[in-house]
Design a protein that fits this description.
With about 190 residues, this protein is an alpha+beta fold. It has a domain of about 130 residues. It is about 30% helix and about 25% strand. The strands form two sheets. It has a six-stranded mixed beta sheet. It has a two-stranded antiparallel ribbon with strand order 4-7. About 25% of the residues are buried. The mean pLDDT is about 90.
Length: about 190
């Protein structure tokens, strides 16, 4: 993956982001949005950040973009599939969306708990950031308000090669490089 961006420290940083899972990855995305937009910490577990200028409750949901697996793991291909699972082999650059299938799930979306959703994609070369108001989510292609049986008010939607153009056209607010993100995190404000 290092060929996409130059500086070795920034490459290590980016590769580390792709290696993080669940809550730790989510925390990186939350800190990014907080610093980019000068949001405050939330005083509630129901949403992630607070915009003190508008009093909006902010939710943050991001995903890393990985090429879909090309085969299931079987007895005869287990080594090959493990090698292909390597981040360097699966992380997808933003310009590759026409060439590879991918599926990023924005999940546990509890629309009544926030006013604005910042969501996006960590590609191998850039981070694409989108913004959607809570009531706009109902009209998001593929949105389902039934993520799990019994979880009323919790939904999800997918970003993939079929609907990425919609999100880029209607909701994209920023595209930043890993160098810019690294510099944002280095700055002491």
């Amino acid at each position: 993956m290092n060929s996409i961006i130059g500086d070795e420290k920034v490459c290590e940083f980016r590769d580390g982001i792709f290696a993080l899972r669940t809550r730790r990855f989510g925390t990186v995305a939350e800190i990014m949005i907080k610093k980019l937009y000068n949001f405050e910490e939330s005083d509630s577990l129901a949403f992630d950040k607070k915009d003190i200028n508008t009093n909006d409750r902010i939710e943050v949901k991001f995903s890393t973009v990985m090429k879909e697996n090309d085969d299931t793991i079987r007895d005869d291909n287990v080594i090959e599939q493990c090698v292909k699972a390597n981040l360097a082999n699966r992380a997808m650059a933003s310009e590759d969306v026409e060439n590879y299938n991918f599926d990023c799930n924005i999940q546990q979306v509890k629309r009544k708990e926030f006013d604005v959703l910042y969501y996006g994609l960590f590609f191998a070369d850039v981070i694409e950031i989108f913004r959607m108001k809570s009531d706009e989510i109902l009209f998001c292609p593929g949105y389902s308000d039934k993520q799990h049986r019994g979880n009323a008010g919790e939904g999800q939607f997918h970003l993939n090669q079929d609907n990425l153009a919609y999100h880029r056209k209607e909701h994209q607010v920023l595209v930043i490089s890993y160098q810019e993100l690294y510099d944002l995190f280095v700055r002491r404000v």
